[in-house]
Amino acid sequence: MTHELYCKDAGAVSCGGHITGANEDEFKSNLVAHLEAKHAVNKPNDTLVDYLMGVAETGSAGEKKLKF
């Protein structure tokens, strides 16, 4: 299942970030890397990561993406 997140959808309207991942583990890794590199969030806590994972759109090939 693919995952994607635009930072603006999570409230960071000034960030043009678009994070993707082919599965949950890849997405989470890319998300943490983005938070550290672009938002100066060193070692994001589980609460923040869980929130952003929940805001992310998910879907799989041939399925309509879910919006949260």
Low-confidence stretches: 61-68
The average pLDDT is: 85
Number of helices: 2
Give the N-terminus to C-terminus distance in angstroms.
16 Å
Over all CA atoms, what is the radius of gyration?
11 Å
Task: Give structural notes.
With 68 residues, the chain is α+β, with helices and mostly antiparallel strands. The protein has one domain (2-59). Helices cover 37% and strands 18% of the residues. The protein has helices spanning 24-38, 46-55; strands at 2-6, 18-21, 57-59. The model is unreliable at 61-68 (pLDDT under 50).
How would you summarize what this structure contains?
The protein is an alpha+beta fold and 68 residues long. The chain has one domain (2-59). The chain has helices spanning 24-38, 46-55; strands spanning 2-6, 18-21, 57-59.
What is the strand and helix layout of this fold?
Elements: E1 2-6, E2 18-21, H1 24-38, H2 46-55, E3 57-59
Antiparallel strand pairs: 1-2, 1-3
